[in-house]
Amino acid sequence: MSFNFKKPFIIAEIGNNHEGNFHNANKLILKASECGVDAVKFQTFIPELYTNLIDKKRIKRLKKFQLTNEEFFNLSKNAKSKNLKFISTPLDLKSAIFLNKIVDYFKISSGDNNYYELIDKVLSFKKKTIISTGLLDKKNLDNFMNYLLKKKISKDKLAILHCVSSYPTKIQHVNLKRIEYIKKKYNVKTGFSDHSIGLSASIKSLFYGAEIIEKHFTLKNNFSSFRDHKLSLNPKDMKLMVNLIDEIYQLKNNFSEKLSKDEKNNTKEMRRSNYWACDLRKGEIISQKNIKYVRPFNKLSLHKTKEIIGGTVKKDCHINTPIKKNDITLKTRQWKL
After folding, report:
1. Are 274 and 244 in a shared domain?
2. Do the domain assignments include residue 2?
3. Does 77 lie in the same domain as 15?
């Protein structure tokens, strides 16, 4: 099954904002669902396979954020029950093998877009895979994309996210035009993983061709001192972003050659018709001063003012009434109403 989105696909990046608490993780899924996102994303890892054992402080901190396989299994069921796609980023090979049983899509983080053993393992599962491009300059991005293309991956199952790996990303460094570059050069599903503060960069990415938008999500921006809460959207702001993206998508993509029903209904009030500007007796010759062009529209009224002038009225006509075909004898027969 390929990536096939009718509108921008929005991922609530929960990441580690649950801080190792299963209850918080489930609550984040619930709140994300209420915001109207399309997917939730986590990180799955075994600290000892992810970080050098010599860094005991980091290992200890990561263990506090670690969820068990059973908890991830239940989170996946919970997300799918709410019609959300369940995505996770494996940070080691063992986690990748486990996730293959429960994820809808895989995600490769920017930090691992040069960890080819992990990438190859994920691609071997032949599931839809999203890859972030943070830490890759133009040369390395091109090399990486060429590597993927040589793997003969179906583009229907691959999505590439422009990403800047700084937390938070300063607005002047967001570099949204890179989305256009990736999309045009590689003809692949393209999106944006947003690490800036606020929602403006995510919104503006639509105008550069983003089809997938990934944004960090938290219950509260002051939930704890963990860095990611500050650059995440809280439920109120995530819902606002989802609504704005939906509106912008409609503005950008809706096209019709026909009038809308609402516009048709406004025709009578907004269009003008020819009305008699004074009373006329039968046989009088019509001049410009006898005609006025005012609202409302009357579909029975004539609108060919030049053809009417010089003709005569067949019967008495009254001021402020529409000028109709049967009211008039034209000056010459060759003129047609």
Report:
1. no
2. no
3. yes
∠ CA 130-132-137, nearest 5°, is 145
Do 278 and 249 fall into the same domain?
no
CB 146 within 8 A of CB 177: no
Distances (CA, A) of 181 to 70, 176, 201, 204: 41, 9, 17, 16
pLDDT at 330 over 90: no
Q: What are the angstrom distances between the C-alpha of 118 and each of 94, 168, 214? A: 10, 26, 21
Residue 337 has pLDDT above 60, yes or no: no
- Ordered alpha helix ranges (H), the chain: 22-35, 47-50, 56-65, 69-81, 93-99, 116-124, 138-150, 177-186, 200-205, 235-253, 261-265, 267-270, 305-308
> Could you report the per-residue pLDDT of 51-78, keeping only the tens digit for each?
999 999 999 999 999 999 999 999 999 9
- Residue 244 belongs to some domain of the structure: yes
- Domain containing 288 equals 270-329
pLDDT in tens, 34-58: 999 999 999 999 999 999 999 999 9
